[in-house]
Amino acid sequence: MALTLTRDNMLARFGGYRSGASSLIHGATSALKHELHPAMRTGAVSVAAFTFGVIQGKYHRSNGLSYGEVPVDMLSAAAFHTVALFGFAKSYAPILQALGDGALSAFLSATGSRVGQRWADGGKFIPSMLGAFVGEDKPVSGGSSIADEELRKLARG
């Protein structure tokens, strides 16, 4: 006689205690799912943040990897969250949102690190924030820094 370890077989061995064993197994399964969900979310956020941190670290010399003018980690965060809204990805929505949160946290961590470095180099916090999201060499609004540079060249020459 072969040993079979199916749910019905195990419950049959309990005999009169079948209903109690069934509720015990159901309760344990429910508790395990409840406990694993936060661990899976934390794992997905951590893996995404680490992955995008490695990608941006590899391309650090060129101010990070970007697609056009948008950093890849921020673009990926938006893409993961957008895909999670569609019906075909409904069963994967929590994991897609967790990956999006990880990508967004990697972007904000790198940006915050740059602001902190500027602040530590001697300056006030608010001026250190200027240009944080568009890069040091790009103007924050309307090209005013380009106009200032052109005025300096005209004054010298």
Structure description:
- There is one protein chain.
- This protein is mainly α and 157 residues long.
- It has one domain.
- It is built from six helices and two strands.
- The longest helix is centred in the first third of the chain and has 41 residues, at 18-58.
- The radius of gyration is 27 Å and the shape is elongated.
- The model is unreliable at 138-146 (pLDDT under 50).
Write out the strand line-up for the largest beta sheet, numbering strands in chain order.
Answer: 1-2
The main β sheet shows up as:
2 strands, antiparallel
Number of helices: 6
Let me know the number of strands: 2
User: What does the overall shape look like?
Assistant: elongated
Ends distance? 99 Å
Helix content: 55-70%
H/E element string?
HHEEHHHH
What ranges have pLDDT less than 50 throughout 5 or more consecutive residues? 138-146
Number of domains: 1
pLDDT average, as an integer? 75
